[in-house]
Amino acid sequence: MNLSFKTAKELRSRIESLTKGPLWKSTTWKTPYPTKKPLTLYYRDPIECLQSLMSNPLLKGSIDFTPFKLWKTAERVVRVYNEWLSGDAAWKIQDQLPEGATVLGAVVSSDKTQLSTMTGNRQAHPLLITSANIRMNCRMKASFHAFLLLALVPIPKFIERDVEIRGVLESRTFHAVLDFVLGPLKKVAEIGLMMSDPLGWRRFCFTPLVAYILDTPESAMVAGVAGKTSSVTTASYKNFGDAYRHPPRTRDYTVQQLHQLERHTDPWDLGPYVKKAKLLRLNGVHRPFWHDWPMAEPSLFLTPEILHHWFKFAYDHIVKWCIAALGAAEIDFRFSVLRPHTGMRHFREGISKAKQVTGREHRDILRYLIPVIAEAKVVTKAFITALTSIMNFFYYGQAPELNDDVLDQMDHALATFHRCKSAILKAGVRKGKNGPINNWHIPKLEFLQSVVPAIRANGVPLQWTADVTEHAHITEVKDPASNSNNQGYEAQICRHLDRRDKCHLFNLATSMETTGNTEDLDGDDLDAADHQEPHPLLAGLSSGRTAVNYFTYSASLRDGEYPNAPTPFRTFTSENKVTAFHLNRDHVGHRVTIEDASTRFCVPDLKDALLAFIQRGPTSPLTIGGRRPKLDDTQPAFTYLQLWHSVRIQTRSYHDSQQLLEPETVKAEPPKGVWKSGRGDPVLVNIDDDYHWPRSGLAGHAICQLKIIFCVVPRSGFVAPAETDQFLAYVQRFDIVSQPNPEGGANGPFPESSTGMFQLKRSRRADGSVRGDIVPLHRVRARLELTPRFGKVANKKLTSGTSLDYCEDFWLDKWFTKELFWTLSH
């Protein structure tokens, strides 16, 4: 076939002749009540979509077909949960299937999205589908396109004056459409179907609905319940603040209510039917799409959703309580004087008047919230304990792997919040338009009672986050719509996706032909995609950027692959290979004398610290701020230093040491502009080789401020000491303030009880000077956030450039990153 073309028309013709993916179909959708415009449903066969995912050679080794159980130790006492197949629900479904059959869990997602690039306030209601059998580290990567657009659900506008009746008709239309589109999955869940896996093997598959990713209002609509009613339990709004979980709202429970209702009232006599349905806490949908789906259980497939159920709840309620407690001016000032960190949002104007806040801003606010409000004038110990507990709950639950011990901690955190939540009402900070609110009628709060049971049933909540599906809305709906002519955009979206699928299949085939067979594309290759060179086949197909891997670069330098690279190597690792570092090739400006560097960075003891470091030698224990040895009068073998103002640090994941994290930039700049004392970021420094971050926690480490990054320049005719043939750093130490031992006994370096954070104090010598010393740069382990202890009222003289250097007392913010939280909480 001749694939050459000269015009756009010829290009489209060539694309149409390529191998097809799942075919798009359309049908006119008729409704029992008149609508303003005729409705057209565009959809694909869900079985074809799942088959296209299952048979994708890129997923070879990243898709499982058998439920499994993980244990923390060989004694099999503490269960570990991660993928959906590791939970109890997969096992229960497997037990109901014939011997040798495969459970192929269907995951769907739907949410209305604004086509903002178009005129006329256009909306789309995409329905996405994927499989829970695909491992979440692959399924959640946008570059793999594991979420396929299954249908564009029509958005009807009924000619009906009664707003309530109109809403019921819209909900019934939604359920009827899903019942039609997902019908093939129901049939396969009942009788099974032979399908091919990535290796070409035939499997007898059953397709239960195992997860439905959606936000809170749509969750109630899918469950068929009325407003102010839980979609996963039998609780109504008066029970939302209860400290225990109500019985689950099972499929049988809801269907029985519907049958009871229909025995007395015609479902299409809408007025009386809806009125009686509300008495049963139902929304008027008489045939939920899941009512006849074998093995589909709404109380299980309506999974916890981090973005809306947790972070949106935290912003809409917890953040508002804190603003009301401190006052907008005070909390805005405290946020404005926090030090900015590269790659993170800095709230220069505060948070009280933030507009169009996204999920990312929600996370950035929460990472600072507790240390910012701690010790404020109106914040009681019970108040801060309640907020700390629910924050712990949110952060524990975001882990990619959870075990029974952590789930017990989550239960304890939620119970502590409920025990202390009366302090929030007592403070009068839960407010509405008409003044203080003295109840807990918050649907998202009630959802939290179902999180731990859902984890045991379906695996970790991280895999069900709407972050991935909302990104899919961009690639599957918004981008194609932006290329349309603004008329009949649904059909044009489908045609765009059809052609894109054909091109993708063509690229896959040609890449396989170019790279040869895919026998070496095994599971280990895909699992290690973040920390190894990409497989040639993946490199040619992935639209995502390749993750930076400084560990690989460092190994290449050590192996001599770059003989002309300057030394010391600008990319290197710690001795135990847990941290990698990368500096710019060239130092900043000209080389400077030790005295000039000392003056420029306001570090008067730099020379003494450097000479003491050399005199101690490589075999001496590393100390920061301790007693220095008596310095000899020998002339040092160097006079000049080369300076760097930043370093990139890359570490490994707490839960998977093979998983590399995104590099972080750590600053060490001299005084300039608003940075009156320089810009040196707080870091964690290893001082004992027997302790390994992150598993060791703070043991064997010191909390410091990075002031200078440098390497020495040997004098002509001299040989520099071996200790200086590396990058060095001058750091200043902070001490942990002693706290009562939570288990009894003597005070020690323990977290403060109500916040769970370590209190820090700048370490000073007897003469008042700050304790500092020289350490090898490869001893640095992580970037930290030290939040000033503002006290009852913040010092109005502070700025974002001076808050770290002018304050003496700080909080070690354990919520700064999820990795830091998991490390300090275990």
TrEMBL record:
Q: Which domain of life is it from?
A: Eukaryota
InterPro entries in alphabetical order? DUF6830, Plavaka
DUF6830 domain span:
549-705
Descriptive protein name:
DUF6830 domain-containing protein
Q: Give the species.
A: Mycena metata
